[in-house]
Write a structure and sequence with these properties.
The complex is a heterodimer. By secondary structure, chain A is mostly beta strands. Chain A is 0% helix and 56% strand. Chain A is globular and about 45 Å long. The termini of chain A are far apart. The model of chain A has no long low-confidence stretch (mean pLDDT 93). By secondary structure, chain B is mainly β. Chain B has no helices and 11 strands. Chain B is globular. In chain B, the strands form 2 sheets. In chain B, strands 2, 4, 5, 6, 9, 10 and 11 form a 7-stranded mixed β-sheet that branches. Classes of the chains: A mainly beta, B mainly beta. At the A-B interface, strand 4, strand 5 and strand 10 of A face strand 5, strand 9 and strand 10 of B.
Chain lengths: 112, 113
């Protein structure tokens, strides 16, 4: 079953605009990660944020985490056509039975 | 460093057959995880191997099995294939367990007819 649920399911924007995707989860987490997947290929890790962190930046990416609301957001600034992909959040709860649980993803389309 | 390599890239099998998928992790990575991806269910965790031991298993029937070798390479096997097993099977490696980013291969696309 999915732990994270992304919102919206699909997002279409113009090049240069910002894209915001949200992720909500149900149980306490240790870490939250965001991944990107181009059509039919493997996932690429974008950023990891720990449960005691509130915000992280990496290039044009900004991730926030609100553990009280069990939610995270991924902001991509100044989007490019090459950013077109599906974006997934993934959570883990730590412990010996460690595994990453993925949401169903947001399909982002950036129109040139 | 070479990335995660999965073979074969595409596979077509008929119901009732069995299949073995292979994954070579990034050199030095000791953890290998397998995921099944379908349009309906999304990414579902199959199992994780670390130091040749299965550390965690997802909610899949016993027809799905795997193993890891001493060089960290991993295989997964699906026996008595069903139509619903058609999916993209993704392998991911990480340096260790517990919060390290996963590095994914490009997957094996399995079609069961």
């Amino acid at each position: 079953s999915q732990q994270g649920e992304e919102d919206p399911q699909a997002l279409s924007i113009q090049e240069g605009e910002n894209a915001t995707m949200n992720c909500s989860y149900k149980t306490s987490i240790n870490n939250l990660q965001w991944y990107r997947q181009n059509s039919g290929r493997g996932l690429v890790h974008l950023i990891l944020i720990r449960s005691n962190e509130r915000e992280k930046h990496s290039g044009r990416l900004r991730v926030t985490l609100d553990t009280s609301k069990k939610s995270s957001s991924l902001l991509i600034t100044a989007s490019r056509a090459a950013d077109t992909a599906s974006y997934f959040c993934a959570t883990d709860s730590g412990g010996s039975n460690y595994k990453l649980t993925f949401g169903k993803g947001t399909l982002l389309t950036v129109n040139p | 460093k070479a990335g995660v390599t999965q073979t074969p890239r595409y596979l077509i099998k008929t119901r009732g057959q069995q299949v073995t998928l292979s994954c070579s992790p990034i050199s030095g990575h000791r953890s290998v995880s397998w995921y099944q991806q379908t349009p309906g269910q999304g990414l579902q965790f199959l199992f994780e191997y670390f130091s040749e031991t299965q550390r965690n298993k997802g909610n899949f029937p016993g027809r799905f099995s795997g193993r890891q070798f001493s060089n960290s390479r991993s295989e997964m096997n699906v026996s008595t294939l069903e139509l619903g097993d058609s999916a993209l099977y993704l392998c991911a490696s990480s340096l260790d367990r517990g919060g390290s980013p996963l590095h994914f291969g490009n997957g094996t696309r399995l079609t069961v007819t």
